[in-house]
Amino acid sequence: MADARDIVDRFVGAFYGGDIPTGRQYLADDLSFVGPAATFRSADDLLRASAHVAPGVRAVEQRKVFVDGPDVCIFHDLVLDHRVGTAPVATWYHLEGDRIASIRMIFDTGPFSAGRSGRRDGAAVDPVCKMTVQKADAADTRGRTPPIREGMRGGPITLAVLPAPSRSRMSRRRT
Q1: What's the rounded mean pLDDT across residues 54-77?
Q2: Which of 36, 10, 6, 37 is nearest to 21 (CA)?
Q3: Would 66 disulfide with which of 30, 73, 82, 141, CB 3.0-4.6 Å?
Q4: Of 78, 65, 61, which Cα lies nearest the Cα of 5?
């Protein structure tokens, strides 16, 4: 198996750099993605739904990376071209062979929600594409998260503390 961290770093760089075709080559066709607002069961569905994200990301600043065999967990800040400014994100990637088979993303959607957007109709607004989502619709999908792949259900994970990556490696700022 190729180096899991290298594969994830290449995917993250390509995806947030707006190079979707290159990012796609690191994903398994039957990728499982679970995030705070969406769930996808294929790489193409994920990329089709999230391709609008990259133009709104000014930088990806890695804070900590943990690697345990085929699992890579990254804590990073997304510096956004949006009033929120920076969104801290935790993402867990699981590889099967040399492809990312599942992604679990966790971040606080609160700053993007109605209370902070000035809306009073219970809606949240996507910071990049400005799509409006009713909170009731999003809440209805909670609790129906698909099962995590067997590879992600193993026993306790031993976390290795790695040296902090250089800013130039993962950070790209737009002017």
Answers
A1: 91
A2: 10
A3: 73
A4: 65
96 found inside a domain: yes
Residue 97 neighbours by CB distance under 10 Å: 10
Return the pLDDT at 136. 58
Are residues 58 and 81 in contact, defined by beta-carbon separation less than 8 angstroms?
Answer: yes
CB 31 within 8 A of CB 40: yes
Q: Three-state DSSP class for 13?
A: helix
* More confident site: 40 or 175: 40
Long-range contacts formed by 130-135: CB under 8 A, 24+ apart? 133/37
CA distance 67 to 93: 10
More confident residue, 22 or 125: 22
Enumerate the H helices of 3-157 as residue ranges: 4-16, 20-24, 43-50, 114-117, 135-141
Task: Report yes or no on 161 lying in a domain.
Answer: no
* Percent of the chain clearing pLDDT 90 (strictly above): 40
